[in-house]
Amino acid sequence: MRRTWILSLLVAALCAVPFVATGQAPPLGMEPDSGAILAPSPMKAALWTNKLGYPTGEQIGVYATLDPMGDETPYTIFLYRENIETGERLYLSPFSLAPGATSDMAVDVFGLSSDLTVPLPVPAQEQLRIWTGGVPSPGLWHFVGAVRSDDTTQVAKKAYAKFVVSPQRPVELGFDGQDTEIAMDTAWTNDTIYRIRHQVFVNPGATLTIEAGTLIQARGQNAVIVVENGGKIVAEGRREAPIVMTCDQPIGQRESGCWAGLIVLGDAPMTRGTGLAEGVIPETRPVCGGDNPEDSSGVLRYVRVKFAGVDFNPETQPNAFGFHGIGSGTVIDHIQAHEGEDDGIEFFGGTANCMYCVSSGSKDDSLDWAFGWQGTAQYIFIQQDPQGDNGIEADNDSSGFDRMPRSHPMLYNVTMVGGLEQDLNSTSGDGMRIRVGTAITARHVILTQFGGDALDVRDNSPGFFMDGTSSIENSIIHMNGAKMGDAQIKGGVESMVDFMDVEPMLVNVRYEANPDPRPMVGSPALMAGAGATPPSDGALDTSAQCIGAFCNGENWLEEWTFFGDEFDYDVQ
Fold first, then answer.
1. For residues 157 and 559, what is the distance between their CA atoms, to the nearest angstrom?
2. Cα separation, 357 vs 344, whole angstroms
3. Residue 234 included in any domain
4. 3-state secondary structure 344-412
5. Which residues does residue 333 pair with via DSSP β-bridges, in sequence order?
6. What is the helix (H) or strand (E) element at residue 193, kind and residue range?
7. Which helix (H) or strand (E) holds 8?
8. What pLDDT does residue 9 have?
9. CB atoms within 10 A of CB 478
């Protein structure tokens, strides 16, 4: 039925529009990737495969959802399969008059070459299987759907479906219920799929290196990776080849709390000194904290942790990313926590910095800190689950509000979108809940559509705003708790928070695949003088002098992240 509808649309268009060149044709076999980027479109575009990893010889199914969301612009659409390492492409034309046709030259989804394309408005299609075939040769691959201008030279939207074809048998860890101890330097490579069922420990003195594009699938309340104090993890993904740690269940059936997550323990200062990390499995083993603020626990770059955070009980709740006493020598750059059962990203003390960090769909808090975290975070995107708790929940130490070192991170360029954006009946909590003796310095924050207050400052934390230790400036706070202006702020610090209550005008922050949280042209986030210059201390990008995490023009979420409800990815 769906294919028939599209073919009817094509036939009608072909009868009405003569075959004429619509622009300069690209070189044979190559879709044009250069040229200016079109103005952002609010359209929804999702592309996915029925698995993330395949053995050789299997069949692969490719699915798509498209919704123009009111965008009536005529576009051309290309679909191709590409080897991420070599760039080898095969163009697919699932809606041609010869369904399933493929070409090593650039053709659109109707099988027309780039100089003969017929631009059409994007049709609305929901969870449509658009291609089936045998898996390609072993390696890192993706399918790419590119919505392009009428002359094919500019990009309006891209969607990616990344997958691994492995010639090896999967490596199974903990299937016998026993711990895995990594006691010497070990490499996990992207030609192998790793499946975890029980605790994996990276011991002191050992380094676990994970190659870009590696797929790690885990399931069970004891399925966790723990990097011990003195151990290291070097997980260096790339934008085109992120490292994925996810639920070992079929696509469409994954859910938060499927496994326990990634825990990293370090030797940096904490309010409680050296001790056992709370909420880590098992509770008797994870020692963290020390006196080395420059300690390094390794590198996390382009890493996604999805469907993690088992909720054992109120005392043991592993987070998707749990950072316990890790130091500033640790690199955390482009990470995403998605659909965590507890918090998405949590810092327990330490001095680590976080750049380009994403937390989406967390059932509790998106970003949490306690026990003396004194790091820096810049370019942070929070998309709260409609029934989640707080966007940020921030503490010092419940056993002593004034214990040292006091939690006092510096946050720059943050975009926070609450549950009301997704569901008017959302029960999501506050945007920021600042309490238990923590201080905060924040600049360039967009905070909108949370179900509770934008900012709730409690306990003795209001005093730090009053004496100038804490400050939030150069920000947009808009429509939180269905309130306006100072009424969005609780705790008696309203006059000490510098913000505009204006619509931030973001392109698309719906809870679905491929959001685009960039400000539109004319957004107050882009006004001259709206932002301040970040400190030139080496930890921050000083060019980010506008409001929000996407104010420099780039949607840095593209290609390596994953968004939306699991039922959006039906493969039935």
1. 11
2. 10
3. no
4. CEEEECCCCCEEEEEEECCCCCCEEEECCCCCEEEEEEEECCCCCCCCEEECCCCCCCCCCCCCCCEEE
5. 301, 355
6. strand 193-196
7. helix 2-16
8. 40
9. 22
CB atoms within 10 A of CB 308: 31
Q: Look at residue 467 in the predicted model and tell me its pLDDT.
A: 97
Q: What percent of the chain has pLDDT over 70?
A: 92
Q: Identify the pLDDT of residue 286.
A: 85
530 Cβ contact partners less than 8 Å away, ≥ 6 residues apart: 474, 500, 524, 546, 547
Read off the CATH number of the domain in which 50 is found.
2.60.40.3880
Q: Is residue 29 very low, low, confident or very high in pLDDT (cuts 50, 70, 90)?
A: very low
Helix (H) or strand (E) holding 202: strand 200-202
The whole-angstrom separation of Cα 315 and Cα 280 is 9
Q: Would you say 219 and 198 are in contact if contact means Cβ atoms under 8 Å apart?
A: no
Distance CA 157, CA 520 (A): 15
Q: Name the pLDDT band for 20 (thresholds 50, 70, 90).
A: very low
Pairing mode, strands 516-519 and 506-508:
antiparallel
Q: Which residues pair with 284 in a beta bridge?
A: none
pLDDT at 278: 76
pLDDT at 24 over 70: no
Q: Is the pLDDT of residue 495 over 90?
A: yes
Which of 563, 566, 572 is closest to 252 using CA atoms? Answer: 566
Identify the three-state secondary structure at position 178.
Answer: coil
pLDDT tens sequence across 285-339: 889 999 999 999 999 999 999 999 976 655 566 899 999 999 999 999 999 999 9
* Element holding 326 (H helix, E strand): none
What's the farthest any 2 CA atoms get from each other in the chain?
Answer: 76
What is the residue range of 155's domain? 2-166
Which residues lie below 8 Å from residue 257, measured CB to CB, with a gap of 6+? 307, 308, 309, 310, 311, 341, 363
Q: Are the C-beta atoms of 44 and 122 separated by less than 8 Å? A: no
What gap in Å lies between CA 568 and CA 258, rounded to an integer?
Answer: 18
On whether residue 429 sits in a domain, the answer given is yes
- Tell me whether residue 301 is in a domain: no
Whose tokens are 């840095």? That residue is 556
Strand partners, 227: 202, 264
Distance of CA 286 to the CA centre of its chain: 27
Distance from chain centroid for Cα 430: 21
Q: What is the total count of domains within the chain?
A: 2
- pLDDT recorded at residue 99: 67
- Asked if 227 and 318 touch (Cβ cutoff 8 Å), the reply is no
Asked whether the bond before 405 is cis by omega within 30 degrees of 0, the reply is yes
Task: Examine the pLDDT at 31 and tell me if it is beyond 50.
Answer: no
Which of 145, 166, 187 represents a domain boundary (last residue)?
166
Give the predicted TM-score (pTM) of the model: 0.94
Q: With contact defined as beta carbons under 8 Å apart, do 548 and 413 qualify?
A: yes
| Residue-level pLDDT at 472 | 98
CB-CB contact of 146 with 38 (8 Å):
no
- Residue 550's nearest CA partner among 514, 513, 510, 507 is 507
3 state DSSP class of 478: strand
Domain end point (choices 135, 166, 197): 166
**Is 244 a member of any domain?**
no
